[in-house]
Design goal:
Layout (H helix, E strand, L loop, with lengths): L25 E7 L5 H15 L6 H19 L15 E7 L3 E8 L20 H8 L2 E6 L7 E8 L5
Antiparallel strand pairs: 1-2, 2-3, 3-5, 4-5
Helix pairs in contact: 1-2, 2-3
């Protein structure tokens, strides 16, 4: 009883998506300020970028997932005024879009070490807590990994399979 409560969401915690970084055909990234209005900037950046790449019928899925990942990063991961350890010049959140021949990855870097956890919410009118369920539903896989070395924080990513252009 109660064993399948959150089995739907099993992010790949082993780290990066299974793609060869050397084979990437397109890549773009943008730094986002620590303000919730940055979600709009991320959406515009994503729409502009995808408009130049051929992503077929995944355009809307990718835009939706980028919005959710950026919203989560800004809502849960950006330190408040009390965190004096964060260097002020570092951008709070960074969005990366990478395209290979048959797939695309969007990755959002943030300064928090907290594991992204989907909230168990039966209240589907609730404003927050559904973001990762949407990511899970609209992408072909997602996961996260902590940053190494001098970079603090983590990267949360989502993978999309693209139809080959006819």
């Amino acid at each position: 009883m109660g064993t399948n409560g959150s089995t739907m969401l099993k992010p790949l915690r082993q780290g990066l998506p299974p793609l060869d970084p050397a084979a990437v055909s397109n890549a773009a990234s943008c730094a986002l300020p620590a303000r919730l209005e940055a979600v709009r900037e991320a959406r515009l950046f994503t729409r502009r970028t995808l408009g130049q790449w051929d992503v077929g019928d995944r355009f809307d899925d990718i835009c939706l997932v980028v919005s959710e990942l950026v919203t989560n990063a800004l809502r849960h991961a950006v330190p408040g005024e009390t965190d004096c350890l964060a260097p002020p010049q570092a951008p709070a959140v960074r969005l990366h879009l990478m395209r290979w021949t048959g797939r695309l990855v969007c990755a959002v870097r943030d300064p928090s070490h907290e594991t992204p956890v989907p909230r168990d919410s039966d209240d589907f009118s609730a404003e927050s807590g559904r973001g990762l369920f949407l990511v899970d539903s609209f992408s072909d896989g997602w996961g996260w990994h902590p940053l190494a070395g001098t970079l603090r924080g983590k990267v949360v990513w989502a993978l999309f399979r693209l139809q080959a252009a006819e």
